[in-house]
Amino acid sequence: MEPQSLKALWTEGRAALNGWLSIGDAFAAEIVARGGYDSVTIDLQHGMIDDGDALAMIQALRASGAAPLVRVPWLAPAPIMRALDMGAVGVVCPMVETAAQAAELVSYVRYPPAGTRSFGPTRAAIVEGAGYGETADARVICFAMIETARGFGEVDAIAATPGLDGLYIGPADLTLALTGRRFRTGFDREEPEMLDAIRTILGAAKRAGIRAALHCGSPAYAARAIGWGFDLVTLPNDVRILARGAAADVAAVRAALASPGPAA
Fold this sequence. Notes:
GO terms for molecular function: aldehyde-lyase activity; metal ion binding. The chain is an alpha/beta fold. The chain has helices at residues 3-11, 26-33, 51-63, 77-86, 99-109, 124-128, 132-139, 149-153, 155-159, 171-179, 192-208, 219-228, 238-258; strands at 16-21, 39-43, 67-71, 90-93, 141-146, 166-169, 211-215, 232-234. It has an eight-stranded parallel β-barrel, surrounded by seven helices. Helix 2 links the parallel strand 1 and strand 2. The protein starts with a helix and ends in a 6-residue tail after the last helix.
């Protein structure tokens, strides 16, 4: 899916289903993308992925019809600009805590005079065409992650940042930050205070006229989030899919062996 198609999905009032990749492998990226996701995010913060892997994965995602997004390691110009030059159509930036940081993020994804992105779209210009420089600012999608107590406290100011396309909720870190429940991390939060926090961030995005995204741990929770009004929901990543499938197959065989059956 092209970036403009992802934005068109939102304009039509539909939510995007986002995949998540933490294993540095282009074939795995291709398999996931062909599952029918609207977009797939390559995780350079916590994923086991280097630059070479990321480039091949972006190529595989685009060829398979999913809009390639990248979660960059941190708020810094080099990884953000490099991901975009590789051909990512959007970035997700972790740990954004203030409006000033959100403005800094926006500056790294927009060319002057709107931002400070250095011009050198090595691969992006090949796949997007010669006019990439003139259209990139309108095409590239920029999400700021809200996952700290400070970021939550300043969410309205962050959401109001000119040029920011959306807020992306990281429920695991946000739960740690707001409740201190170190050993009860996870994505699909059910605590009343966390549900209130999620809705508060969602409301801030809606008031600012930007998109809201939520990282989910299960398809059922993702469906609920779409019902709440989220514009993008992330489903379980490649690691969880692989681990769950492997465990289920092994358990099924062991269960079959343990069940009484006809004599050989």
